[in-house]
Here is the input.
Amino acid sequence: NGFLPVSSSSQMTPSAYNNNFILVQSRNYVTILNEQAHDARMIPLDGRPHLPQNIRLLRGDGRGHFEGNTLVVETTNYTDKTNFMGSGRNMVLIERFTRTGPDMLDYQFTVTDPESFAKPWTAQIPMPRTNGQLYEYACHEGNYGMVGILSAARAAEGAATVAARK
Here is the structure.
């Protein structure tokens, strides 16, 4: 069972579709599997330091810990290609995941980037549990555009077969 919504960037903002994710916790990691772009973020919980500043990652370098029942994830070391809402490579993202009920998760994130914004800013999104299935971010049975693509390909194959018989 997943929660809703999520985006394809580190912070989990709503996108147009495929807005589901699953949080999985083990002893030393939390993994966030996003349906959108079928991405998994592996976040260490063991207290290790962030990577050196010269190592930059498109999704940043996340480190997590718990404050009571809230999972707190701090992500740094972004590249200049990350650009969330105008942010730069030195953005620091703090995410807070708090279960507020059996079927509700409160998601809050704060963006700090003095080079891009006059002051830190925060957004908060309530995320209800969904019992829907996660799909790989690709065409699947519910993608009706696939019917047109495949019928055109079958027609081209049929024409090639007819031409080959002549």
Notes: The chain is about 15% helix and 35% strand.
